[in-house]
C-alpha cells in the first residue's frame, strides 16, 4: 500500500496498485479499492479556546499578585489587559471561522470529486462517446474551478476584511488606552502640583506669621526696656546726705584775766594774742569741716551720676542684645524654612519622576501591546491569504488551468497583424483564411 496524489481532488490517498477510487468527504470507504488519506485534524473553536485559556491564566496571575499584596495593588481596578485579551479572542474566533470554512470547503471539494468520479464512471459504463466524456469532464472542471475561485476569493476577502476590522478595533482600543493613560498622567500631575503648591502656600503663611510675631515680640521687648530705663531715670533719687550739714565756728569768750590785768595797770597784749591764736585755730577747724563735707557731697553726686550712666548703658546693651537675638532668631527661622522648602521640592521631584516613569512605562506597554496585536492581525491575514492561495493551488491541481478564451476575428487580426489599421470588412477581404478559421 502506498500514498499517491488523486488528480481529481489534489488530496493524497492510499492506493493498492494505483487504481484510485472516488474520495469520500465523510471518511467512508469510497467506491473502488482506493481510500482517502487522513484529513488535517479539526477542532471547533480551537484557537478561541486556546486564547481564552491563556487569558484566564494571565487574569488569574494578576489577581494572585493583587491578593498577595494585601489587596492594595490596583484596589478596585479591573484586569488592566481585559480589552487587549478581548481583541485577541475576537481575532482567534476569526481564525476559527477561517478554519471551519476551509474544512467545509475541503469537504465540498471531496463531495464534488465524488460526484464527478461517479459521473465519469456512469459515462464510461453507458458507452458514451469520447467527445461526450471530454465535454462532461470539461464542464465538471469548469464548475470546480468556478467554485474554487469563489471559495478562494471569499477566503481572501474575509481575511482582508477581518484584518482591516481587527486593525481598526486595535487602533481604536490602543488610542483609547493611550488617551486614558494621558488623562491619568494629567490627573496625577495635577494632584502632585495641587498637593505641593498647597504645602508651599501653608508653609509660607506659617513663616510670615512667625516672622510677624517675632517682630511684635521684639517691639514689645524694646518698649519694655525703654520703659524700664525711663522709669529708673525718672524715679532715681540722688544722695543728699552731705547737703546742708551745719558747721558751727566757736570763738573764745571774754577772758577775766584781761580785766584784772587792766585793773592793775598791767599789759594785756599777750593775753589778747593768745585769744586771737585760739580763735584762729577754731576757725581753721570749722573751715576744715566745711571742706570735708563739700568733698563728701561731691563724691556722693559723682556716685549718683555713675549709677545713672551704668543704668543707661545697661539699657542700651539690653536693646542691642535684643536686636541681635531677634536677628539671629529670624535667620534661623529663614534657614529652617529654606530647608523645609528644599525637602518639599525633593519630594515633589520624586513624585513627579515616579509619575513620569509610570506614564512612560504605560505608553511603552501600550505601544508593545499594539505591536503584538498588529503582528497577530498580520499573521492571521497571512494565514487567510495562504489558505486562499492553497485553495487556488488545489483547484489548479484538481481541475487544471482554465482554457484560454478563444479570440474573435478582430482580436486575432490585432494579435497576428498589429500594423493593420483597416476596418473589420477590409480585414475579412485581406485575411479570408483567418476569417474562415483556417
Characterise the protein shown here:
- It is a single chain.
- With 438 residues, the protein is mainly alpha-helical.
- It folds into 3 domains: 2-67 and 76-206 and 360-402, no CATH class; 226-349; 404-438, no CATH class.
- It is 76% helix and 2% strand.
- It has a 3-stranded antiparallel beta sheet, with no helix packed on it.
- Strand 1 (2-5) and strand 2 form a beta hairpin.
- Helix 1 (46-68) packs antiparallel against helix 2 and helix 2 (82-125) runs antiparallel to helix 3 (130-235).
- The longest helix has 131 residues, at 269-399.
- The radius of gyration is 64 Å and the shape is rod-shaped.
- Residues 1-38 have low confidence and may be disordered.
SSE string, helix = H, strand = E? EEEHHHHHHHH
- Overall tally of domains: 3
Low-confidence stretches: 1-38
Average pLDDT metric:
75
Number of helices: 8
Q: Largest sheet, order of strands side by side?
A: 1-2-3
What is Rg?
Answer: 64 Å
Question: Overall 3D geometry?
Answer: rod-shaped
Q: How many DSSP E strands?
A: 3
Proportion in β-strands: under 5%
Helix residue percentage: over 70%
Described by strand count, sense and barrel closure, the largest sheet is:
3 strands, antiparallel
Short description:
The chain has about 450 residues and is mainly α.
Layout: helices, strands, pairs:
Blueprint: E1 2-5, E2 12-15, E3 35-36, H1 46-68, H2 82-125, H3 130-235, H4 256-264, H5 269-399, H6 409-416, H7 424-430, H8 432-436
Antiparallel strand pairs: 1-2, 2-3
Helix pairs in contact: 1-2, 2-3, 2-5, 3-5
List keywords for this structure.
mainly alpha, 3 strands, three-stranded antiparallel beta sheet, disordered N terminus
Amino acid at each position: 500500500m502506498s500514498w499517491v496524489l488523486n488528480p481529481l481532488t489534489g488530496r493524497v490517498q492510499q492506493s493498492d496498485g494505483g487504481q484510485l477510487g472516488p474520495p469520500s468527504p465523510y471518511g467512508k470507504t469510497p467506491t473502488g479499492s482506493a481510500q482517502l488519506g487522513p484529513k488535517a485534524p479539526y477542532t471547533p473553536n480551537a484557537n478561541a479556546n486556546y486564547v481564552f485559556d491563556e487569558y484566564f491564566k494571565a487574569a488569574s496571575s494578576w489577581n494572585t499578585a493583587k491578593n498577595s499584596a494585601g489587596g492594595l495593588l490596583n484596589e478596585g481596578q479591573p484586569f488592566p489587559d481585559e480589552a487587549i485579551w478581548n481583541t485577541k479572542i475576537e481575532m482567534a474566533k476569526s481564525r476559527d471561522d477561517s478554519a471551519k470554512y476551509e474544512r467545509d470547503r475541503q469537504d465540498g471539494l471531496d463531495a464534488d470529486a465524488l460526484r464527478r468520479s461517479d459521473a465519469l464512471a456512469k459515462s464510461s459504463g453507458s458507452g458514451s462517446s469520447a467527445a461526450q466524456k471530454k465535454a462532461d469532464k470539461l464542464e465538471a472542471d469548469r464548475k470546480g474551478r468556478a467554485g474554487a475561485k469563489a471559495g478562494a476569493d471569499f477566503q481572501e476577502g474575509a481575511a482582508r476584511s477581518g484584518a482591516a476590522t481587527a486593525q481598526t478595533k486595535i487602533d481604536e482600543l490602543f488610542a483609547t488606552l493611550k488617551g486614558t493613560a494621558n488623562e491619568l498622567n494629567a490627573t496625577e500631575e495635577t494632584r502632585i502640583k495641587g498637593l505641593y503648591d498647597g504645602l508651599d502656600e501653608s508653609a509660607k503663611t506659617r513663616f510670615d506669621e512667625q516672622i510677624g510675631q517675632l517682630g511684635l515680640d521684639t517691639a514689645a521687648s524694646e518698649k519694655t526696656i525703654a520703659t524700664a530705663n525711663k522709669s529708673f531715670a525718672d524715679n532715681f533719687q540722688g544722695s543728699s546726705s552731705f547737703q546742708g550739714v551745719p558747721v558751727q565756728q566757736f570763738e573764745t569768750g571774754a577772758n577775766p584775766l584781761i580785766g584784772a590785768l587792766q585793773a592793775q595797770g598791767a599789759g594785756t597784749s599777750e593775753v589778747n594774742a593768745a585769744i586771737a591764736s585760739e580763735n584762729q585755730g577754731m576757725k581753721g577747724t570749722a573751715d576744715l569741716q566745711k571742706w570735708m563735707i563739700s568733698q563728701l557731697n561731691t563724691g556722693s553726686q559723682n556716685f549718683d551720676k555713675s549709677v545713672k550712666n551704668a543704668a543707661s548703658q545697661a539699657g542700651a546693651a539690653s536693646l542691642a542684645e535684643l536686636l541681635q537675638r531677634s536677628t539671629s532668631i529670624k535667620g534661623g527661622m529663614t534657614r529652617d524654612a529654606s530647608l523645609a522648602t528644599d525637602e518639599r521640592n525633593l519630594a515633589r521631584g520624586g513624585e513627579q519622576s515616579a509619575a513620569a516613569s509610570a506614564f512612560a512605562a504605560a505608553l511603552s506597554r501600550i505601544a508593545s501591546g499594539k505591536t503584538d496585536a498588529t503582528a497577530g492581525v498580520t499573521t492571521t491575514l497571512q494565514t487567510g491569504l495562504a489558505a486562499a492561495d492553497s485553495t487556488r493551488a488545489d483547484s489548479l491541481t484538481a481541475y487544471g488551468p482554465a482554457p484560454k478564451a478563444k479570440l474573435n476575428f478582430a482580436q486575432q487580426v490585432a494579435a497576428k497583424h498589429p500594423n493593420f489599421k483597416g476596418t473589420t470588412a477590409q480585414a475579412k477581404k485581406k485575411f479570408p483564411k483567418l476569417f474562415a478559421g483556417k
